[in-house]
Amino acid sequence: MGTIGIALPNLPGVTPPLIPEFARRIEAGGCDAIWALDRLVYENPDPLTALAAAAAVTSRVRLGTSVLLTPLHSPVVLAKQLATLDLVSNGRLLVGLGIGSRPDDFAAAGVPFAGRGGRAAEMIRIMKQVWSGQPVRHQGRYFAIECGAVGPVPVQHPHPPVWMGGFQEVALKRIARIADGFVGSGGVGPAGFAAMWERVRQMVAAAGRPPDRFPNACLAYFNVGGDREQAKAQAMAALVRYYGPQFTSRYDPERALVFGPPEECARRAQAYFDAGVQHLILVPTTLDAGQVDRIAREVRPHLRA
């Protein structure tokens, strides 16, 4: 069996104790990672701040962004923030990056929506310079930066792993060239992931890199509940609020959502592992921290190797 991570709630209504409570339960439940999603124009917590809070109350689990909307940030500032998070967590950070798909997030950040893929790729090159601890010298299409060394240097050497998400062909090619791993979308389901992962592996090989040393993860939204239809309806209400009403036209909960009684959740989660997912990122659709305990105690025991 692969490994399991659980995301912090990416929902409105988060109260002060909720993020530390989720983080403690995720680690105590034997899960392997805590993840934070990113969105700007929504009432969700900032992912880096949330992960810093999680780092303060945990010691073992990895901490990941899945995925950070890279182009909305300044590359040097973002590199410093991520290096600091790697430092305060003692080298537990996994940097998941994406380019974003919602124009309102870009408008709010004052960043052009067009060219966001190239901007993100250029930012990664800059951030790796920052993480080296050397002066930064970069002259590119989107950024011209010349400055001294920016600390702190990350605990992980030469830098935290950089995984990237995406589903368009051009994005997958970019991932194969410059990323350290792949993060699959939460809407494709196990079969969709399997097809996409095979394509990524082909592109990694074409780039002259060993596919067997290129890890992957995939998101799946979840809601554990004894009444399967109620669990599905509750999850879908949260997802429609997050993505908008058009979400129902492209997302099939019977195909992609992990929901229902524990045994059914296990069957649905197992389908992702059977499709080649190495690390499954389960994303809650409620603010109930008890959902974490149910995954740990009632779902994981039903998963098979």
From TrEMBL:
The lineage of its organism: Bacteria, Bacillati, Candidatus Sysuimicrobiota, Candidatus Sysuimicrobiia, Candidatus Sysuimicrobiales. One of its GO terms (biological process) is alkanesulfonate catabolic process. It comes from the Bacteria. This is TIGR03619 family F420-dependent LLM class oxidoreductase. Gene3D superfamilies: Luciferase-like domain (3.20.20.30). InterPro entries: Lucif-like_OxRdtase_Rv2161c (IPR019921), Luciferase-like_dom (IPR011251), Luciferase-like_sf (IPR036661), SsuD_RutA_monooxygenase (IPR050172). Transmembrane segments: none annotated. Keywords: Flavoprotein, FMN, Monooxygenase, Oxidoreductase. Residues 19-278 form the Luciferase-like domain. It is an enzyme of class 1 (oxidoreductase). It comes from Candidatus Segetimicrobium genomatis.
